[in-house]
Specification:
The protein is mainly alpha-helical and 169 residues long. It contains six helices and two strands, in the order ββαααααα. The N and C termini lie far apart (155 Å).
C-alpha cells in the first residue's frame, strides 16, 4: 500500500502480470494438449494397424489403371500457370461474399470499394490475357535435329580399268 496525502492506494501491478501470465499459460497448455493429442493418435495408429505390405498394395493407384512408366513426367508449364491464375481469382472472389452481406449497412462506400476491387481483378485478368497465359494452344514438339555426319568416310572411287587396245586391222 502507498499512502499519498492520507489516502490508501493499492497497487495491483503484480496481480495484472499474474493474470497475463495465466492467459499465456492457457494458450501454451492448449497448444501442448493439441500436440500431445496428435502425437498420441499417430503413435496409437502405428501400434495397432496391420502392416503387411506387398507389391500391388505399394503401387501407385491412379483411377484403377495400371501405372505405366515412371512417375517423373514433365508437365507443360501451362497447366501450372492456368491453375495459379484460377486459384488467385477464385480466392479473390471469395472476398466479395462478406462485402455482399454488409452492402446495405455500409452504403455507397461499399459500392465504390467493390468497383475498385473488381477493377483491380479485371486489370490482372487483362494482363494475364495480354501475356498469352490464357491461351491453350498445343505447341508442336520442338525436337532437336541430329547434326549431319560431317566426317563420313569418303566413298571409294572406282578405279577405271585400262581400256582394251583397239584392234588393228
Amino acid at each position: 500500500m502507498i499512502y499519498i496525502n492520507g489516502l490508501n492506494i493499492e497497487t495491483k501491478t503484480t496481480s495484472r502480470m499474474d493474470a497475463q501470465l495465466t492467459e499465456f499459460g492457457k494458450v501454451f497448455l492448449f497448444l501442448l494438449v493439441g500436440v500431445v493429442f496428435v502425437a498420441a493418435g499417430f503413435i496409437t495408429s502405428s501400434l495397432i494397424r496391420p502392416h503387411r505390405p506387398y507389391d500391388e498394395k505399394l503401387s501407385t493407384y491412379e483411377c484403377g489403371e495400371e501405372p505405366k512408366g515412371t512417375a517423373w513426367v514433365q508437365f507443360n508449364i501451362r497447366f501450372y500457370v492456368i491453375a495459379l491464375i484460377f486459384i488467385i481469382f477464385d480466392v479473390e472472389l471469395l472476398f466479395l461474399f462478406p462485402w455482399a452481406t454488409v452492402f446495405k449497412k455500409i452504403g455507397p462506400v461499399a459500392l465504390i470499394e467493390a468497383v475498385v476491387f473488381i477493377s483491380i481483378l479485371a486489370i490482372g485478368l487483362a494482363y494475364a490475357w495480354a501475356k498469352g497465359d490464357l491461351n491453350w494452344v498445343v505447341p508442336q514438339p520442338n525436337r532437336p535435329k541430329l547434326p549431319e555426319k560431317k566426317f563420313d568416310k569418303p566413298a571409294k572411287k572406282k578405279v577405271a580399268e585400262p581400256a582394251e587396245p583397239a584392234p588393228t586391222a
